[in-house]
Amino acid sequence: xxxxxxxxxxxxxxxxxxxxxxxxxxxxxxxxxxxxxxxxxxxxxxxxxxxxxxxxxxxxxxxxxxxxxxxxxxxxxxxxxxxxxxxxxxxxxxxxxxxxxxxxxxxxxxxxxxxxxxxxxxxxxxxxxxxxxxxxxxxxxxxxxxxxxxxxxxxxxxxxxxxxxxxxxxxxxxxxxxxxxxxxxxxxxxxxxxxxxxxxxxxxxxxxxxxxxxxxxxxxxxxxxxxxxxxxxxxxxxxxxxxxxxxxxxxxxxxxxxxxxxxxxxxxxxxxxxxxxxxxxxxxxxxxxxxxxxxxxxxxxxxxxxxxxxxxxxxxxxxxxxxxxxxxxxxxxxxxxxxxx
Length: 341
What we know:
- It contains ten helices and ten strands.
- With about 350 residues, it is of the alpha/beta class.
- The radius of gyration is 20 Å and the shape is globular.
- It starts with a strand and ends in a 24-residue tail after the last helix.
């Protein structure tokens, strides 16, 4: 089975061909990081325009690299939610046109389900059910992966996501966009216990996250120091931020695993590339006898291989969409994808 995946939910235009669920034949990504760096973050209008410029050659290169043609494909998978609405619309409408022209099934994929599927590519032995921690710039979830296409979210952020907290703290410290990677580098030179930062507890669900207070505390600390003419050691602050976020997500994941009876844990999303998160999860799983699955760094960020992989399992399930498929800026992971019988 050959599935072409298309991803355009944020600022990466990506296409990939995946064979038999987990074998990546091609994985092409056109990044816009350097352009958005000028503005300190992603500018949605610019992202949408660049997707329009890049998507044709990116998809063609993915097909060429895989040495396949449209007629060889069994289906075309595309991210339809969640994400920047203008960016998503570029990928969705291109995929709809391509599927119509090639007379191939169109398979909708939820972006978070795609991140979860990145682990299937990296770990041929991984099969549901298991518990997955999904941490990225826009999402922080703990989800039960009940099957390849069914999920139950048991914890989510109430406000900022972990990646957003990393990036906004980094920006306040003067690091360039994207800031998370700079905090990760600086943390290796700092003392993680130098600053005591808030670790919010959420009423109503012990597995939910809140990173807004942590972000605000860091920004206020930096502003107060600047007003007093004091200097804050950014290496120490970076190490403290990373240690705090890593310990929060790890503690919540551990509590959820024990409560729901899981000994198989996966991590996914852009923040799964963070060295502090990876080390904390490795230590926690080792201490408790859990099996841990994490994607390689190349599959942590947005890419189309994960979309093609998730799409291949949707394809097996009979999930299809027609020309009525729309893009959605927000959508819960548990919600059914658009289905045309």
